[in-house]
Amino acid sequence: MEFQDVVRRRHMVRSYDDRPVDPAVIERCLTNAIHAPSAGFSQGWAFVVLDDPDGVDRFWKCTADPSAPSSWLAGMMRAPIVVLPCSSKAAYLDRYTEPDKGWTDRDESRWSMPFWHLDAAMASLLILQTVTDEDLGACFFGIPPERLDQVRSEFGIPDTHEPIAAITIGHRADGSATGSPRRRRRTPLSEVVHRGGWSE
Protein backbone atom coordinates (compact mmCIF):
# COMPACT_ATOMS: atom_id res chain seq x y z
CA MET A 1 0.00 0.00 0.00
CA GLU A 2 1.30 3.48 -0.82
CA PHE A 3 2.18 5.59 2.22
CA GLN A 4 -0.46 8.24 1.46
CA ASP A 5 -3.06 5.49 1.28
CA VAL A 6 -1.96 4.22 4.70
CA VAL A 7 -2.35 7.72 6.16
CA ARG A 8 -5.78 8.27 4.59
CA ARG A 9 -7.15 4.83 5.42
CA ARG A 10 -5.96 4.61 9.03
CA HIS A 11 -8.83 4.90 11.49
CA MET A 12 -9.76 3.39 14.82
CA VAL A 13 -11.55 0.06 14.46
CA ARG A 14 -13.88 -0.88 17.31
CA SER A 15 -15.39 -4.12 16.04
CA TYR A 16 -13.52 -7.24 14.97
CA ASP A 17 -14.31 -10.72 13.78
CA ASP A 18 -12.67 -13.75 15.34
CA ARG A 19 -10.17 -14.63 12.61
CA PRO A 20 -6.61 -15.04 13.91
CA VAL A 21 -3.87 -12.60 12.96
CA ASP A 22 -0.70 -13.86 11.31
CA PRO A 23 2.09 -13.67 13.96
CA ALA A 24 4.42 -12.31 11.27
CA VAL A 25 2.20 -9.21 11.04
CA ILE A 26 2.60 -8.53 14.76
CA GLU A 27 6.37 -8.94 14.43
CA ARG A 28 6.37 -6.34 11.62
CA CYS A 29 4.31 -4.00 13.80
CA LEU A 30 6.78 -4.27 16.67
CA THR A 31 9.83 -4.06 14.41
CA ASN A 32 8.47 -0.86 12.90
CA ALA A 33 7.55 0.53 16.34
CA ILE A 34 11.14 0.52 17.52
CA HIS A 35 12.08 2.73 14.57
CA ALA A 36 10.13 5.62 16.12
CA PRO A 37 12.13 8.70 17.11
CA SER A 38 13.11 9.05 20.75
CA ALA A 39 14.79 11.86 22.67
CA GLY A 40 18.50 11.16 22.97
CA PHE A 41 17.81 7.79 21.35
CA SER A 42 16.69 6.78 24.84
CA GLN A 43 14.26 4.19 23.42
CA GLY A 44 12.43 4.01 26.71
CA TRP A 45 9.56 1.92 25.42
CA ALA A 46 8.42 -1.65 25.91
CA PHE A 47 5.44 -3.60 24.59
CA VAL A 48 3.40 -6.24 26.40
CA VAL A 49 1.90 -8.42 23.65
CA LEU A 50 -1.19 -10.46 24.51
CA ASP A 51 -1.69 -12.83 21.59
CA ASP A 52 -3.52 -15.77 23.09
CA PRO A 53 -7.16 -15.99 24.23
CA ASP A 54 -6.23 -16.34 27.91
CA GLY A 55 -4.08 -13.20 27.94
CA VAL A 56 -6.66 -11.16 26.04
CA ASP A 57 -9.42 -12.37 28.37
CA ARG A 58 -7.34 -11.44 31.43
CA PHE A 59 -6.83 -7.96 30.01
CA TRP A 60 -10.56 -7.34 29.63
CA LYS A 61 -11.27 -8.74 33.09
CA CYS A 62 -8.74 -6.24 34.47
CA THR A 63 -10.05 -3.23 32.61
CA ALA A 64 -13.79 -3.71 32.08
CA ASP A 65 -16.80 -5.78 33.07
CA PRO A 66 -16.95 -8.41 30.33
CA SER A 67 -19.97 -10.10 31.91
CA ALA A 68 -22.25 -7.33 30.63
CA PRO A 69 -20.45 -5.81 27.64
CA SER A 70 -21.71 -2.76 25.84
CA SER A 71 -21.81 -2.93 22.05
CA TRP A 72 -18.44 -1.12 22.01
CA LEU A 73 -16.86 -3.56 24.43
CA ALA A 74 -18.35 -6.60 22.71
CA GLY A 75 -16.82 -5.52 19.40
CA MET A 76 -13.45 -4.73 20.97
CA MET A 77 -13.25 -7.99 22.93
CA ARG A 78 -13.26 -10.02 19.72
CA ALA A 79 -9.82 -8.65 18.75
CA PRO A 80 -7.34 -11.52 19.04
CA ILE A 81 -4.40 -9.26 19.89
CA VAL A 82 -3.93 -6.61 22.57
CA VAL A 83 -0.65 -4.69 22.81
CA LEU A 84 0.19 -2.56 25.85
CA PRO A 85 2.78 0.10 24.91
CA CYS A 86 4.71 1.20 27.97
CA SER A 87 7.05 4.12 28.60
CA SER A 88 10.05 4.35 30.91
CA LYS A 89 10.76 7.72 32.47
CA ALA A 90 13.81 6.24 34.15
CA ALA A 91 15.39 5.42 30.77
CA TYR A 92 15.24 9.10 29.80
CA LEU A 93 16.40 10.49 33.13
CA ASP A 94 19.32 8.07 33.10
CA ARG A 95 20.20 8.69 29.45
CA TYR A 96 20.53 12.44 29.93
CA THR A 97 23.07 12.05 32.73
CA GLU A 98 25.46 10.35 30.29
CA PRO A 99 28.55 12.34 29.22
CA ASP A 100 27.32 13.26 25.75
CA LYS A 101 24.22 14.96 27.19
CA GLY A 102 25.91 16.92 29.97
CA TRP A 103 23.31 16.86 32.72
CA THR A 104 24.66 15.80 36.08
CA ASP A 105 21.38 14.87 37.75
CA ARG A 106 18.06 13.22 36.97
CA ASP A 107 15.97 16.30 37.75
CA GLU A 108 12.63 15.80 36.01
CA SER A 109 12.01 19.57 35.91
CA ARG A 110 14.60 19.86 33.13
CA TRP A 111 12.05 18.32 30.77
CA SER A 112 9.53 20.65 29.17
CA MET A 113 7.14 17.74 28.77
CA PRO A 114 7.22 13.94 29.32
CA PHE A 115 8.99 12.82 26.18
CA TRP A 116 8.94 9.23 27.46
CA HIS A 117 5.17 9.21 26.90
CA LEU A 118 5.39 11.10 23.60
CA ASP A 119 7.95 8.71 22.17
CA ALA A 120 5.93 5.66 23.20
CA ALA A 121 2.92 7.26 21.50
CA MET A 122 4.93 7.76 18.28
CA ALA A 123 5.96 4.10 18.41
CA SER A 124 2.28 3.25 18.84
CA LEU A 125 1.38 5.23 15.73
CA LEU A 126 3.84 3.15 13.73
CA ILE A 127 2.00 0.06 14.97
CA LEU A 128 -1.31 1.55 13.83
CA GLN A 129 0.10 2.43 10.43
CA THR A 130 1.62 -1.01 9.96
CA VAL A 131 -1.72 -2.61 10.82
CA THR A 132 -3.39 -0.44 8.18
CA ASP A 133 -0.73 -1.37 5.63
CA GLU A 134 -1.57 -5.03 6.32
CA ASP A 135 -5.27 -4.28 5.69
CA LEU A 136 -6.18 -5.05 9.28
CA GLY A 137 -7.82 -2.93 11.96
CA ALA A 138 -6.57 -1.46 15.24
CA CYS A 139 -7.72 0.86 18.00
CA PHE A 140 -5.55 2.88 20.41
CA PHE A 141 -7.42 3.63 23.64
CA GLY A 142 -6.79 4.52 27.25
CA ILE A 143 -6.77 2.20 30.23
CA PRO A 144 -9.05 3.48 33.03
CA PRO A 145 -6.76 5.09 35.65
CA GLU A 146 -8.37 3.14 38.46
CA ARG A 147 -7.48 -0.13 36.66
CA LEU A 148 -3.81 0.62 35.95
CA ASP A 149 -2.47 -1.02 39.12
CA GLN A 150 -4.46 -4.15 38.38
CA VAL A 151 -3.08 -4.28 34.82
CA ARG A 152 0.46 -3.82 36.16
CA SER A 153 0.00 -6.63 38.64
CA GLU A 154 -1.72 -9.03 36.26
CA PHE A 155 0.95 -8.74 33.59
CA GLY A 156 4.01 -8.17 35.76
CA ILE A 157 4.80 -4.69 34.44
CA PRO A 158 7.68 -3.33 36.54
CA ASP A 159 7.66 0.03 38.31
CA THR A 160 10.20 1.31 35.78
CA HIS A 161 7.54 1.25 33.05
CA GLU A 162 4.08 2.74 32.74
CA PRO A 163 1.41 1.42 30.35
CA ILE A 164 0.29 4.47 28.39
CA ALA A 165 -2.63 2.84 26.54
CA ALA A 166 -3.78 -0.35 24.86
CA ILE A 167 -3.98 -1.28 21.18
CA THR A 168 -6.38 -3.91 19.87
CA ILE A 169 -5.47 -5.54 16.55
CA GLY A 170 -7.53 -7.82 14.35
CA HIS A 171 -9.60 -8.28 11.23
CA ARG A 172 -12.32 -5.65 10.88
CA ALA A 173 -15.87 -6.92 11.27
CA ASP A 174 -18.33 -6.10 8.51
CA GLY A 175 -19.86 -2.69 9.10
CA SER A 176 -17.16 -1.72 11.60
CA ALA A 177 -16.59 1.76 10.14
CA THR A 178 -18.06 3.67 13.07
CA GLY A 179 -16.84 6.17 15.61
CA SER A 180 -16.32 9.90 15.93
CA PRO A 181 -15.10 10.51 12.34
CA ARG A 182 -18.56 9.43 11.17
CA ARG A 183 -20.16 12.09 13.36
CA ARG A 184 -17.61 14.90 13.33
CA ARG A 185 -15.88 16.66 10.47
CA ARG A 186 -12.12 16.52 10.09
CA THR A 187 -10.77 19.97 10.97
CA PRO A 188 -9.37 21.56 7.78
CA LEU A 189 -5.77 22.69 7.48
CA SER A 190 -6.87 26.32 7.34
CA GLU A 191 -8.05 26.07 10.97
CA VAL A 192 -5.02 24.34 12.45
CA VAL A 193 -1.99 25.62 10.50
CA HIS A 194 -0.50 28.99 11.54
CA ARG A 195 2.24 29.93 9.11
CA GLY A 196 4.94 32.25 10.41
CA GLY A 197 3.23 32.52 13.80
CA TRP A 198 -0.16 32.22 15.41
CA SER A 199 -2.76 34.53 13.94
CA GLU A 200 -6.52 34.64 14.23
Shape: globular
Q: What is the structural class?
A: alpha+beta
Number of domains: 1
Average pLDDT for all residues: 93
CATH fold field value: NADH Oxidase
Q: Tally the beta strands.
A: 5
CATH architecture assignment: 3-Layer(aba) Sandwich
Strand portion, in percent?
5-15%
Order of helices and strands: HHEHHEHHEHEEH
Structure description:
The structure is a single chain. The chain has 200 residues and is α+β, with helices and mostly antiparallel strands. It has helices at residues 3-9, 23-33, 53-63, 71-77, 89-95, 115-133, 148-155, 189-192, and strands spanning 45-50, 81-87, 137-141, 162-163, 166-170. It has 8 helices and 5 strands. The chain has one domain: 3-Layer(aba) Sandwich (NADH Oxidase). Strands 1, 2, 3, 4 and 5 form a 5-stranded antiparallel β-sheet that branches.
